[in-house]
Design brief:
This protein is 42% helix and 13% strand. It has 6 helices and 5 strands. Strands 3-5-4 form a 3-stranded antiparallel sheet.
Length: 191
Amino acid sequence: MVRHYLPNIYWGVMMTDEDLKGLRAMAHPVRLRMVSLLTGSAMSAAEVARELGLTHANASYHLRILLDSGEIVEAGEERIRGGVAKKYRYPHELRGHNPRRRTSAEDHVLYARTLGRELERRVQERKARTKSLSSDLEGWVTPEVWERALDLLTEASHLLHDHNQPPRTPGTLHVSASSWAFQMTRGEDAS
């Protein structure tokens, strides 16, 4: 097998195309929606297709890419009309625990563009006159404040992911929550 090596600006190391597979798999609007859908509930390709308005073949294709990249896992099977359908889920509880995954700044930009398009779609579906939060900051804070903010964002993310229900579960609200917090390099004091 021939491996192609790409420079990785973000980590300052050389890496293979395989290392980039996960983030590139997520940098597609349909697959980003699938991962959100598969957080907290295992679904078959047919169920995903129905929920997202896709053909079964298209849903299966995107699920295969997510599965091959390690972004989703098989979560059992169910018998349907004399056949067997695989179920998939997004293992959010393991997110961020893959020391092999290294990504470049370019890959993060690709993901950010995809997320931006997905957020545009979600904002168009925003329910008017309901409680919400919009926050943006590029600023300077102490390391202690930064650590506390990251802890709170992580706690909120885990809370929502851990309690996510299958689509249209009675007693639930359809919500959107995105956050991306990181330290920046431009303007840092060289001392």
